[in-house]
Amino acid sequence: MIKKGIGRQIVLHYFIVVFVTLLMVEVIFMFAIRTYYYDSIYNHIVNNASRTTDYFKKFVSSIPEEDPTYFADMIRTFAIDNTEGEILNRNGEVLINSTGFKLDKPIQTSDVTQALTNHVGKWIGREPGTGELVMAVSSPLQFKGETQYVVRYVTSMERVNAKLMNITMLAALVGVIILAVVLLFSIGLANSIVKPINNIRAVSAQMARGRYDVKVKGDYRYELGELADTLNYMAQEIVRSNQIKDDFISSISHELRTPLTGIKGWSETLTLGGFDPEETKIGMQIIAKETDRLIGLVEEMLDFSKLQQNEMKMVITKVNLKEILQETMLNVWAKAEQKQIQLKLEDLSEGQVLVAGDGNRLKQVFLNLVDNAIKFSPESSWILLTISVKEHMGVVEVSDNGIGISTEHLRRVKDRFFQVNHQGGGTGLGLAITQQLVELHNGEMEMSSELGEGTTVMVSIPLLDEAEMEELITKQIEDAPVEES
């Protein structure tokens, strides 16, 4: 007995489909066989009746009325094995038959009625006296253009029906054998599907309990193979994600501890007093610097949280990308000067490059990209910012000749919490946030890099569509909260 589950459903459905198909085939087959046998008998009798009719027309010019001797000779001449021949008058009364058995009642079956209308008649039914199933074929015997008599042949169908029954039983036996074979094959088929599913289910249950080291083993094909590979890949990604989170927690703990230690140390030192104004000023500057650093870390994590929860508010306005880049360069100029890095802006566009976007968020994008370029570039190097227009897109490229990124890390550098260099500081969220901000502007961000040669980041933002801009501004005005007076 197959227990409840997908295996039983497969076997049941497969069995039902084959059973219904076999039943239809056998019904059609038996109907065809019965029709073939019955038609063969009918055609044989009709051919014989036709010869009898032709003989009567051709050789009988005048006959004594109801001459039993003549009719008896004709019945014997055109006799059929296992078939009774009869001559009837127009009233259906039997004048003579091949068995010599005389009937008291006239025959009024449909074959006789059809023969009296100059057609060959056929009737299948049971004899009143014996209850035997018979086929009767009647043909008219015409004299001087009128139907005077009917020749009727009656044959039993019991032997044919018995043979048909044997064929039916044989066909049913073959059907049962086929169904048994189908059942065995369907059970095997169900097991070939259910066994891998049970294996995958068991592995997924272990994964649900936190065991990501287990793997789905087995060379499964088609969708099951894809499911197994997907589950194994999911486990690898969870392990990798957990490792990244652990690294992030370790990194962010370090990042938070360092400024907090500096703030606490100088706070306690300044509390003791006894310092000259210059030393006090240095301590306060360090406290302010470390406080800004903490604020930056917290804001980065808050931005990432908002982006993940789709809560980032965007104020869409008309933004000039050239102005954003110029402001960005001014903001990072001092930091670049400390490493003697030259910042260059190359304008390949003709006129203004206007996009619909949030100016502050776009500035955040380019600040993060340029800040990363400064962080990972050597002293006395350069960073080039290029702006151009390509295929109705405003394109900004940030290129440097810094340390570059390996091919392996380049594929993952935009993943959240991922850091190429854990000693470089930061949360590993900067590029992930940048990527999502660009996507919120319906743009794209692509990176290309070569280890030891430098990195180029290309950001593409759709150019401003005036009609779309008006629609966005109108929507923002409608969605803005109304202040109560």
UniProtKB/TrEMBL annotation:
InterPro entries: HAMP_dom, HATPase_C_sf, HATPase_dom, His_kinase_dom, HisK_dim/P_dom, HisK_dim/P_sf, Sig_transdc_His_kin-like_C. It comes from the Bacteria. It is found in: Cell membrane. The keyword Cell membrane applies. It catalyses: ATP + protein L-histidine = ADP + protein N-phospho-L-histidine. Residues 191-243 form the HAMP domain. Keywords: ATP-binding, Cell membrane, Kinase, Membrane, Nucleotide-binding, Phosphoprotein, Transferase, Transmembrane, Transmembrane helix, Two-component regulatory system. This is histidine kinase.
